UniProtKB/TrEMBL annotation:
SUPFAM superfamilies: GAF domain-like, Winged helix' DNA-binding domain
InterPro entries, alphabetized: GAF-like_dom_sf, HrcA, HrcA_C, WH-like_DNA-bd_sf, WH_DNA-bd_sf, WHTH_transcript_rep_HrcA_IDD
GO molecular function, one term: DNA binding
Keyword terms of this UniProt record: Repressor, Stress response, Transcription, Transcription regulation
Name of the protein described by the UniProt record: Heat-inducible transcription repressor HrcA
Species for this entry: Phormidesmis priestleyi ULC007
Record has Cell cycle as a keyword: no
Role, per record: Negative regulator of class I heat shock genes (grpE-dnaK-dnaJ and groELS operons). Prevents heat-shock induction of these operons.
Amino acid sequence: MSLPINLTNRQQQVLWATVRHYIATAEPVGSEALVKEYNLSVSSATIRNAMGVLEKSGLLYQPHISAGRVPSDSGYRIYVDKLIKPSTEATSQIEQLLAGRLNWDEWSFEALLRGAAQILATLSGYITLITMPLTRTTELRHLQLVQIDPERIMLIVVTDTYETRSVLMELPKLEDDAEIDAEKVDRELQILSNFLNEQLKGRSPADIATLDWSELGREFERYSHSLTSLLADLTRRFSQSSAVPTQILISGVSEVLRQPEFSELHHIKTIMHLLEEEQHQLMPLIFDQPDLDGSGRRVTVRIGSENPLEPMRTCTLISSTYNRGSAAVGSVGVLGPTRMVYEDTIALVEATADYLSDALG
């Protein structure tokens, strides 16, 4: 995600400090508090000016006229994407607890999942959602690239259950603006189709991420970027359509009740109804996979209004899949208020997913 405006270093520092202070206190933040608690080396007037810019750009807002500012969903998004890194301390802490308290050799995998859910809920302070693993995963049977017209090609994918997906893409332009030779394109598409089948037949859609385009040579470079995006989109679609684990293991409801955002009985009731009665709506969200965009992100973070389900629009859902081999078969998620300790929670979710992948391996 790109910054909505060109924030200066000072404005980024003020946004970071405002989010950190609000996460810690649950109280609107004023410039005086930032001067006292953070070494920003500027006057409160300079901080007020920066906060005003952040408010105008939609990253902060005032809940009341006389109050300080609090982060908006967009402010949290910039904070998560640009201003923090997962906590190495949180990673070490949960790795030690998972290794020390759970027993791979003597426990069933369901017992491991339940134990991991409890540990994750206790450390994060939020609701933990861990899915039971899929009993089977989709395998790719055939892939074919076909030229539709001089400007478009179609990718057709067939699975082992004969489910078919097809998507159109623009034919990549030639660097020298030469006229496209339809027969040459057909030959190139057949070579690409053969390559895709050789690499992916009998494998999971998740394995699309492991394709090494360099094996094809430089003459096919113009296809690789567009096809990578296209295949990533298909991977997400297959994951969502095949992701029907029989159960979500839930832990940590008592933990999250300590958060002021869940003090209203009506709010927690709507969340519990979703968790207990509407799991089929929750499943595509918790089993979503991050974009295969080269950023290295291993978690999906849905903040507030980014969640499509109404009860979750004051919440953040952080999730990551756990794997059997290279295939995603289950998911680890944490649901809490948008005022969440993101550095810790992202690290905790990643480490738990890694632990379960190792346990399955």
